[in-house]
Automatic annotation (TrEMBL):
Residue span, HTH lacI-type domain: 1-56
InterPro entries linked to this entry: HTH_LacI (IPR000843), Lambda_DNA-bd_dom_sf (IPR010982), Peripla_BP/Lac1_sug-bd_dom (IPR001761), Peripla_BP_I (IPR028082)
Record PROSITE patterns: HTH_LACI_2
Molecular function (Gene Ontology), one example: DNA-binding transcription factor activity
Keyword set, alphabetical order: DNA-binding, Transcription, Transcription regulation
CDD domains per record: HTH_LacI
Protein name: Transcriptional repressor, LacI family
Length: 337
């Protein structure tokens, strides 16, 4: 193992500049930084991060809490966050909660014990989260992603879930659908799902129609045909279904096709998130597209500004768009009696 002075000499810089390239790379010109890193690689030098943390009282690590990584919506966001953090010389400490409040509390406590410099969190329900209430008494910057709390004041990077689902429902109404339902996972586990259901209700009420109760599935990303089938029978049978995320919508389409239903000829389906997988399946999924990479990048930028002692402007809800696919069509024409 060689020391930092040899790295500095090989790179043609001072020892202080070499040290700064590791501790605060954003403060060093890219050309100089690359020379230092190349010299470090050539000499097999590894900076002592623990010693740096003790000296600077900064771990250069950000804690990231997500509900799950099995849903691509969070994985795509995380990838953008990792790139943005690395560009500023930070690493990520990542954990998942499976929408369980107690796991959220345990994970955040562990991250605080590891002295992360800041937290990026997506919790199950922000306004009822004891974790967020407790964090307001801590001296650690926090940014939420996807959550848009009404009762707790914390910076948030998100979309307007209610308005987005209102627009998606409006598109189905414009196609002529009147029997429209909404499918969600355990509805009380996710404030985003509740907001999306409120948007669906807004659109139905505005059209003079009665919103249906949520078709609640046991999982956020997997449908259950037995739960779904009663809504597809009788003279009030649904001709269109909105799903609170794309994986759930893809699962619904699969269940319907296996049961002999035709999508979209009999039933139209719209998802929410805009994951790439939705464009690859058949029929391709119509979906409300969230700017996932932008959400991740903005979350890191806002958090690093807070860590630097700045007061960045609040992030306005990011725009969404409805991506039309093969999974929606006008409602079937009923034969004359």
């Amino acid at each position: 193992m060689t020391d930092l002075l040899r790295v500095a000499k090989l790179a043609g810089v001072s020892r202080a500049t070499a040290a700064r390239a590791f501790s605060s790379p954003e403060l060093v010109r890219e050309e100089t930084r690359l020379k230092v890193f190349a010299a470090s690689d050539a000499l097999g030098f590894r900076p002592n991060l623990i010693a740096r943390q003790l000296r600077t009282q900064s771990s250069r690590t950000l804690g990231v809490l997500l509900p799950s990584l099995s849903n691509p919506v969070f994985a795509e966001q995380l990838q953008a966050m990792e790139v943005a953090a690395q560009q500023r010389g930070y690493g990520l400490l990542i954990a998942t909660s499976d929408y369980q409040p107690q796991r959220e509390a345990d994970i955040v406590e562990n991250m605080l014990r590891q002295r992360v410099d800041g937290l990026v969190l997506t919790v199950a329900d922000a306004d009822s989260s004891q974790v967020l209430a407790n964090l307001q008494r801590e001296d650690v910057p926090v940014v939420l992603v996807h959550n848009a709390p009404q009762k707790i004041t914390l910076p948030s990077v998100c979309v307007d879930n209610r308005q987005a689902m209102r627009q998606a429902t409006g598109h189905l109404l414009g196609l002529g659908h009147r029997h429209i339902g909404m499918i969600a996972g355990p509805i009380l586990q996710s404030d985003r799902a509740l907001q999306r259901y409120q948007g669906y209700c807004d659109a139905m009420n505005a059209a003079g129609l009665t919103p249906a109760a949520v078709l609640e599935m046991p999982s956020h990303t997997r449908s259950d045909l037995q739960t779904l089938q009663p809504a597809l029978q009788g003279h009030q049978a649904m001709t269109a279904l909105l799903c609170t995320n794309d994986l759930l919508a893809i699962s619904v389409i699969g269940e319907l096709l296996r049961a002999g239903y035709r999508v979209p000829q009999q039933i139209s389906i719209i998802g929410f998130d805009g994951i790439d997988l939705g464009r690859l399946v058949y029929p391709s999924l119509s979906s409300v597209v969230q700017p996932l990479q932008n959400m991740g990048t903005q979350a890191i930028a806002h958090l690093l500004a807070l860590i630097a002692g700045q007061r960045p402007d609040p992030v306005a809800p990011l725009p969404v768009q409805l991506r039309l696919g093969e999974s929606i069509a006008p409602p079937p024409v009923l034969p004359l009696p």
